């Protein structure tokens, strides 16, 4: 099918990829009534259901439950949750309320900033290709990078996340840290002439590509399902799929992955992700970046990692284990986390980053306000 080939070509995450993604979305919409008429897609799924082992069905329902819990469609706080929420906020207070204490803890140390993208710098939207960050947020991150070494760590492919952020002075770790590059333009933190470049999973590229094609094919009958090629990993987005279809979609994904023991599934906010089994994650990327920045065995470094997703927990845990810096979880609801502080939403992340800039370079803020 032409569509599939085109998608592969766009897999490097350039603009053509974005167009192809929306084409794919439109195609899946128009395909829906057709597949209903033929009855093809649905019969296949019900046959699949029969062949699933109990264990795997349990795992799928736990993914789906946990995806629903971590991405509530309607934010609600029934009275019974208030107590839990209070206790959670006690253990993970707002990074804005604790700003003075945070600055106090960083005294004499080099702050290094790590920022997730989706749900941290940009709001979670229905169409992942339209997860734009505001100009105000971009300006804030640009100023932040003038104060501290700053890295974006995302599950998306590096080119795609760069196309959203568009700041050459940052470090970028795409595909959950499996694709790392240093600043393209002058950064005072850049060591030597070469931009850092590290791709620990390059041997998996052909396999990922193959799985991507299979997933596109297998999920095309599910209305709203969207498969994104993130180069070193593949994301299957559930955001536009009716919750009633989630279990079936998860089973479709699982059935594709079955044939690839070297790949594993992880789950995020309304997304299932397929990645190589190599021991590499956002936490490892954080450590790699700290090392590249020359802070390998330093005690005077203070990394701050802000993220909203399960995959960010690997980075939060590294910071907790190292006893250096801390993680900030972006969440409106209590979650099990290794982060020390919380922020409710990207707006609050921006306020926190602004306060860091104001504290470090009051002049930078005054100059730019004029
Ligand atoms: Mg995120």
Given helix and strand content, the structural type is alpha/beta
Distance from first to last alpha carbon: 55 Å
Radius of gyration from the CA trace? 21 Å
Bound molecules: magnesium ion
- What is the CATH architecture annotation of the largest domain? 3-Layer(aba) Sandwich
Which range does the strand content fall in?
5-15%
H/E topology pattern: HHHHHHEHEHEEEHEEHEEHEHEEHH
Mean pLDDT: 81
Overall number of strands: 12
Highest CATH level, the class of the largest domain: Alpha Beta
CATH superfamily of the largest domain: HAD superfamily/HAD-like
In DSSP terms (H or I, runs of 4 or more residues), the helix count works out at 14
Number of individual domains: 2
The profile of the biggest β sheet is: 8 strands, mixed
In order across it, which strands form the biggest sheet? 5-4-3-2-1-10-11-12
Helix content: 40-55%
Unreliable stretches covering 5 or more consecutive residues: 1-55, 190-194
- Find the CATH topology of the largest domain: Rossmann fold
Shape: globular
Catalytic activity: alpha,alpha-trehalose 6-phosphate + H2O = alpha,alpha-trehalose + phosphate
Pfam families: Trehalose_PPase
Protein name: Trehalose 6-phosphate phosphatase
Function: Removes the phosphate from trehalose 6-phosphate to produce free trehalose. Trehalose accumulation in plant may improve abiotic stress tolerance.
